């Protein structure tokens, strides 16, 4: 038994010797990573900028993870751009600098306009072994809104459907005036209010707000502002307008059918949609009723100059609508 163990030990030693003498297999080396490794800090951003209150510029940040001890330059690829953007596509890193900022300016941007800039890192600056963002998209919408003001909304629309007369009520608004004299008027959620027991005309004959909604009538989905567009010649138009209310028939919408109306009076006077224009009030069921238009006055003085007093306030619509169906 001892001799057998001796032979086994000799055999094992021989195998070990032969194995040790074999040439070890060479490991294939990994390909060298590119020296540069540059990325954007994120893939893109979208903003709405108020031209009256904010600088017309944007900062894009880039960073690198290799070759940091040396200075470097990166010429960004411009995938698409609007002529309004002003910037140098060559980004420079100083020695030791990990992050740099590219400032894009657009001083000649127009209000009520949207611009897009798309950039990319060149291939020789992308490290395939580094997870980073190699493309960037910036979308900016420019607005020139004034601070909110108070105007007077004169509505014939719902009265023409539900059997009560026109009403006048206060509504907040702002406008975005362009260089050519055209503007966008935004009446801020004129119908999206709740009765609070103060629905009585003031000395000007104007109600504090639209008077006929209970809390259960409001649709908590989106904002319900009315955007009116007035061109440089005074012609006004608006998009389909959801009032944000449901009186039991579905969401009520005023459809414009691409009807244009004259913006009567001066810029700071009023915008009127002819009561005889072919606009409609619709509900979610799809049925439509003739719509008698509306007027919006930029101030209570402009309203008083036109009317002298408010249209008579009629009864609440609930009694009238009981005999109607969509």
Count of distinct structural domains: 2
Please bin the fraction of helical residues: 10-25%
Low-pLDDT residue intervals, each spanning 5 or more residues: 1-22, 261-268, 274-285, 312-326
Large-scale geometry: elongated
Please give the number of β-strands.
21
Helix tally? Answer: 4
Distance between the termini: 106 Å
Radius of gyration, CA atoms, in whole angstroms: 35 Å
Strands ordered across the widest β-sheet: 17-14-13-12-11-10-21-18
Largest sheet entry: 8 strands, antiparallel
How much of the sequence lies in strands comes to: 25-35%
Order of helices and strands: HEEEEEEEEEEHEEEEEEEEEEEHH
Written account of the structure:
With 326 residues, the chain is mainly β. The protein has two domains: 38-143, Immunoglobulin-like (Sandwich); 149-321. 12% of the residues lie in helices and 33% in strands. It starts with a helix and ends in a 5-residue tail after the last helix.
């Amino acid at each position: 038994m001892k001799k057998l163990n001796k032979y086994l030990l000799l055999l094992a030693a021989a195998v070990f010797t032969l194995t040790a003498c074999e040439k070890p297999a060479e490991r294939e080396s990994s390909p060298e990573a590119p020296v540069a490794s540059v990325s954007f800090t994120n893939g893109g951003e979208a903003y709405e900028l108020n031209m009256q209150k904010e600088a017309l510029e944007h900062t894009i940040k880039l960073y690198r993870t290799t070759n940091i001890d040396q200075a470097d330059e990166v010429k960004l690829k411009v995938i698409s751009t609007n002529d309004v953007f002003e910037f140098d596509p060559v980004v420079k890193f100083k020695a030791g600098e990990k992050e740099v900022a590219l400032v894009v300016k657009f001083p000649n941007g127009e209000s009520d306009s949207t611009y897009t800039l798309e950039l990319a890192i060149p291939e020789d600056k992308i490290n395939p072994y580094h997870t980073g963002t190699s493309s960037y998209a910036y979308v900016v919408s420019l607005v020139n809104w004034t601070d909110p003001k108070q105007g007077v909304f004169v509505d014939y629309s719902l009265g023409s459907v539900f059997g009560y007369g026109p009403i006048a009520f206060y509504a907040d608004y702002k406008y975005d005036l362009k260089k050519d004299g055209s503007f966008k008027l935004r009446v801020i959620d004129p119908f999206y209010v709740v009765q609070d027991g103060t629905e009585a005309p003031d000395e000007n004959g104007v109600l504090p707000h639209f008077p006929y909604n209970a809390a259960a009538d409001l649709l908590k989905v989106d904002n319900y502002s009315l955007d009116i567009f007035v061109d440089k010649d005074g012609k006004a138009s608006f998009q389909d307008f959801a009032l944000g209310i449901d009186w039991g028939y579905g969401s009520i919408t005023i459809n414009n059918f691409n009807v244009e109306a004259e913006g009567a009076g001066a810029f700071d006077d009023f915008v009127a949609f002819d009561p005889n224009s072919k606009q409609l009030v619709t509900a979610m069921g799809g049925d439509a009723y003739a719509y008698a238009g509306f007027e919006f006055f930029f101030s209570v003085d402009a309203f008083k100059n036109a009317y002298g007093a408010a249209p008579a306030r009629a009864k609440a619509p609930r009694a009238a609508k009981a005999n109607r169906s969509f």
